[in-house]
Amino acid sequence: MAVDSTISSPLGPPACEKDAKALQFIEEMTRNADTVQERVLAEILSRNADTEYLKRFKLGGAADTETFKSKIPVITYEDVQPEIQRIANGDRSPILSAHPISEFLTSSGTSAGERKLMPTIKEELDRRQLLYSLLVPVMNLYVPGLDKGKGLYFLFVKSETKTPGGLLARPVLTSYYKSDHFKTRPYDPYNVYTSPNEAILCPDSFQSMYTQMLCGLMERNQVLRLGAVFASGLLRAIRFLQLNWPELAHDIKIGSLNSRITDPAIRDCMINVMKPDPELASFLTQECSKEDWEGIITRIWPNTKYLDVIVTGAMAQYIPTLNYYSGGLPLACTMYASSECYFGLNLNPMCKPSEVSYTIMPNMAYFEFLPHESGTMNLSGFDSPARLVDLADVEVGKEYELVITTYAGLYRYRVGDILRVTGFHNLAPQFHFVRRKNVLLSIDSDKTDEAELQKAMENASKLLTEFNTSVVEYTSYADTKTIPGHYVIYWELFIKDSSNSPSHEVLNRCCLEMEESLNSVYRQCRVADHSIGPLEIRVVKSGTFEELMDYAISRGASINQYKVPRCVNFTPIMELLDSRVVSVHFSQDLPHWTPKRR
Predict the structure, then answer these.
(1) Is the pTM higher than 0.70?
(2) In Å, how far from its chain's centre is CA 418?
(3) Beta-ladder partners of 332
């Protein structure tokens, strides 16, 4: 389509008229970031003026920034949990939002071991859809010709449950994929998937993955990009191909769908597209039966231009493995979002992973920034002495914790993400995602903090008491060399009586006991999503942790202030620990998990 030459964007020449409008919208929002933010806050406060929560702080209908900041406290999830629980239990009065809460989005962050429930309203789907609609126009600036092929994206729905009051509770992407915004999306030649909706919406993860992989293989020459939400998800797809290529090749050869795929919607959909292709089956057998899988992505999908996956934060640990399987294809991180709110997008999606910066879109919510470690919150929760900073007033190079006020009824809510300002696009700041606050271990969507790990360790070590054995010290790391990745815990034991030491089976049970003690997101990843492997305990020789301290002191640590790190990822330390391992143990069973909240 010819583009009107009068429409252009400082970001670059748009690929089509639709892109021109999207890029123009980005420019308008970011040029007027401060006024857009004022408008967003005024809209949120005006429409929700009669909610129980805002009336409690006596705003008196005021919708200006100054009154808002002086009267509304900065909060965490635990502060607003009683109100959220009332809504979950069926209270339909306007507690947080004047608009009815349509469902809860379950966060990968947890509170008391359960997923946090984030309230949302119907119109938030429009806001999320708006951000999605900006991604392809930006990508088209960097990668031409995406309308000449398709994307192989591995997308999945996860289990959902209902609260006592009958509202759905499910992950944000499950909510989106099941919405009409996704299911009946208009055809866009720049954004065509190989995966049929029937496969994406199938709740059985094996059947869904099998069908999506099969479709991607059948259209291998059409595929221009591969993607999943997280890097770990794309690597799971590659591992799935390693384990299941003989069956996939067989289906392609005879043009018939594996009998293990029983979902009626998938079978009805696939009957129309499957045709015998012995040549493709022979090619797949030849490539997949080779021992060396380096560059397998470009060998099977030769026209792939980039991988679309999140590789920032904890996902950065997967970059070397992705590079191995893809032959070093560019890794595109396109957007920054969470269950609480969608925040912004990467205006330079083909940059190196270490240089990814997200531009906050000021129309999505009202944003404030708590300077990180520059002060503490006082007991009332108000923002002193570390004064919160507005979107347009952050400083390049400084780190902040993100604080949001949303249309759905979260007010001055601390998200827990630490961001570093890298620059500005017009008046809108650009941020590098540094890390989640307090997260020690993460493989997939799980987030385990030090307190949870300590509790799990204490519960597991109770199994050792009858053997007069105790855990002297411990540390951990997230092993992502295996697919799926898994938690590794190093234990140094004190065994009083070597003739009564715990057996191999007892230490295996300790692994399972630790898993039973971890939060529901971890257990769902283990049981339902199969995105985390069995937890491993490596028992090290007596005296190992003293050697660890000696090593730290030799590198400049203070002997008075030295504390055993509860998580390690520095290669020399890992090598020291692994060289002292005397036995290795794994969970032999899956921990308990159901979609219902405890």
Answers:
(1) yes
(2) 15
(3) 308
